[in-house]
Amino acid sequence: MVWMTLESIRLHLADIEARGPVDYHSALLDRLADHVGISESELSVIPSPHVALAKADLVARRMAESRMDAKRFVGRFVYPHIFDLASLEPG
Predict the structure, then answer these.
(1) Looking at residue 81, what is its pLDDT?
(2) What is the distance between the alpha carbons of residues 65 and 82, in angstroms, rounded to a whole number?
(3) Per-residue model confidence as pLDDT tens digits over 62-71
(4) End-to-end C-alpha distance for the chain, whole angstroms
(5) Is a pLDDT exceeding 90 seen at residue 38?
(6) Burial class for 55, CB neighbours closer than 10 Å (0-12, 13-18, 19+)
(7) Where exactly are the structural domains of the chain?
(8) Cα(22)–Cα(20) distance, rounded to whole angstroms?
């Protein structure tokens, strides 16, 4: 899960770099930004041709922040309740 999320960020950055950031849109990138708490107001000062690249950069920075529950934080993006399900007892 963690690897898939980090690989997704890496692939988005590579895709933006290859295709260029102008008019770039990705629902997955939007979802990642929502997950890490990036608001539209944070990106409002960025010129529109560069918003996708700035958003991907912010996502990567937020994912790389030091936190006690890093694996859970990243894992919750892929499957929000995976750790709750893993701790359920039978019956």
Answers:
(1) 54
(2) 22
(3) 888 888 887 7
(4) 27
(5) yes
(6) buried
(7) 2-86
(8) 6
55 alpha-carbon distance from chain centroid: 9
* Complete DSSP assignment for 27-67: HHHHHHHHHHT--HHHHTTS-GGGHHHHHHHHHHHHHHS--
| Cα dist from 56 to 20, 32, 72, 87, 88, whole Å | 13, 9, 20, 33, 35
Q: How far is CA 50 from CA 15, 23, 40, 47, 74, in A?
A: 14, 9, 13, 6, 25
**What gap in Å lies between CA 25 and CA 12, rounded to an integer?**
10
Q: How many angstroms separate the CA atoms of 2 and 30, rounded?
A: 18
Is the pLDDT assigned to residue 80 strictly greater than 80? no
